[in-house]
Amino acid sequence: MVELQNSVVDAQHTFAEKAERDVIAAAQQGDKLAYKKLYDAHVGRVYALCLRLTGERTMAEDATQEVFIQLWNKLSNFNGQSKFSTWLHSVTSNITISYIRKQKGWFQRTFNIEESAVHDQQIDTSADTVSLDDYVLRLPERARHVFVLHAIEGYRHEEIADLLNMAVGSSKAQFHRAKQLLTEWMGNE
């Protein structure tokens, strides 16, 4: 009985992968309905990653929109050698980091201000549950980026260093800083 259930699950999974490959191929040929199907299937995960990286809902919404705008042009680069979700994850990370850099630079130039101290914000702990994401959003920007990419998304420090234009040692130090802050905050609140 268990073998039959496993083979049914495997068949469904194989069918879903083939269906997604067909949708991707259609979208690569310019089919807007197929592209909308890809959008609908992946927008939640893309937004979640954008939110973790940006730390702000409005900025995450804008970054998500930027990802899907650029994805339309980059979709032809997907060659099927990896899972689409893995490729999309990498594209999302790259576009979001680039988007953050552009926005941060524009904001600082326009208003002539220093980096804001997001990590000084307090979390309302009167609620029954405070999620890890609430604490992660409080982290200083560089520490948050490294923590999200390494601990949550599974990037290696070498990959993070390349993506964020930093030394591998800096990536490891920022990750350590993030872990220390999270431990402190979660223990005190």
UniProtKB/TrEMBL annotation:
Q: What are the UniProt keywords, alphabetically?
A: Sigma factor, Transcription, Transcription regulation
Q: Which domain of life is it from?
A: Bacteria
InterPro entries named among the record's database cross-references: RNA_pol_sigma-70-like, RNA_pol_sigma-70_dom, RNA_pol_sigma70_r2, RNA_pol_sigma70_r4_t2, RNA_pol_sigma_r2, RNA_pol_sigma_r3/r4-like, WH-like_DNA-bd_sf
* Residue ranges occupied by any RNA polymerase sigma-70 region domain in the UniProt entry: 38-104
Q: Where is the RNA polymerase sigma factor 70 region 4 type domain?
A: 131-182
Keyword Repeat belongs to the record: no
SUPFAM superfamilies xrefs: Sigma2 domain of RNA polymerase sigma factors, Sigma3 and sigma4 domains of RNA polymerase sigma factors
State the family named in the UniProt similarity comment for this chain: Belongs to the sigma-70 factor family. ECF subfamily.
Q: What protein name applies here?
A: RNA polymerase sigma factor
| Native species | Alteromonas arenosi
